[in-house]
Amino acid sequence: MTLHAHLARARKRLEASGIDALEAAVDAEWLARTVLGWDRARLLSSYPDQAPDRFAASYDALVARRERREPAAYIVGRREFWQREFEVGPGVLVPRPETEFIVEEAVAHLTPGSRAWRIADVGTGSGCLAVTLALEFPHARVVATDVSEAAICVARRNAARHGVADRVAFVLTDILAGVDARFDLIVSNPPYVPLPEWPGLPPEVREYEPREALLAGADGLDAIHALLLQAGSRVGQGGRVIFEFGFGQDAGVRAAIAARPAFRLTAIREDLQRIPRTAILERV
After folding, report:
1. Would you call 34 exposed, middle or buried from its count of C-beta atoms within 10 A (0-12, 13-18, 19+)?
2. What is the DSSP letter of 20?
3. What is the share, in percent, of the chain residues with pLDDT greater than 70?
4. Would you say domain 3-68 falls under CATH 3.40.50.1970?
5. Phi, psi (5° rounding) for residue 121?
């Protein structure tokens, strides 16, 4: 069989398992490039060629895992974030494109290279935010927290991979409990899935990604309330808190911020689908 025929068959299998056609096409190609160790240009130019020896068995094994709705990023073991690759796997959330808005807002509010900014990343997971901010702000000192020891281990490896292990301190704790420091910026992609929505989540999320990084009480705002409570004493005047929240939660987020007079909501940013997604707060 040609490579093109292998990929076409894989796409059909993935679509039959309930995966969207566009996502199935992307994943079929990504898994093939993983097996072959090729970039996209080489794969596309080789479509008419016969598949290399032993390709079929290895490729079919990966496609079968994706067919069972295991996230492609877990299968491959990495995910791109802010144009850099990060290790991911069971125990950490797969970084989403919308979380990059946090980085964009951080860069807009802090001047890169101007000083040794003090930054905290609450619920670091894979460390994609902590590591990215350490790279964007070369003199910054970053504290990254998480309740999961497995996540901390993955995040440490990502920090070492990108050469910032000496500037990112990882702390196994809930939110900022026990962290005795003040910061210029606190960022977070906290849990925000309401408990009633759990059964309706895609299998990739519900069956594979860590529940503790997703669920946040009946309305999905428990972690955000805790973040605001603890951040008030850890951000200096004029400092920022930037965090992500879920679909339909903007009114609840506004109310939670209004109940904390230490903060002023400066903006709520929409994602590419025009869904309110990122809150930017200033410490007054």
Report:
1. middle
2. -
3. 99
4. no
5. -115, 110
Q: Which residue has the tokens 């060629």?
A: 49
Q: Quick one: average pLDDT of 95-110? A: 96
Domain boundaries, the chain: 3-68, 91-283
Q: Confirm whether pTM is higher than 0.85.
A: yes
Same fold, 3-68 and 91-283: no
Tokens 């990060």 -> residue: 86
In this structure, the strands spanning 168-172 and 263-270 are: unpaired
| pLDDT at residue 111, as a whole number | 79
Q: What is the CATH number of domain 91-283?
A: 3.40.50.150
CA 168, 171, 176, 182 dihedral sign is: negative
CB-hemisphere CA count at 13 Å for 81? 30
User: Identity (one letter) of the amino acid at 153?
Assistant: C
Separation CA 137–CA 122 (nearest Å)? 18
Using CA atoms, how far apart are residues 236 and 104, in angstroms rounded to an integer?
21
pLDDT of residue 114: 67
Per-residue pLDDT at 115 exceeds 90: no
pLDDT band at 169 (very low <50, low <70, confident <90, very high): very high
What token pair was written down for 60? 């079919």
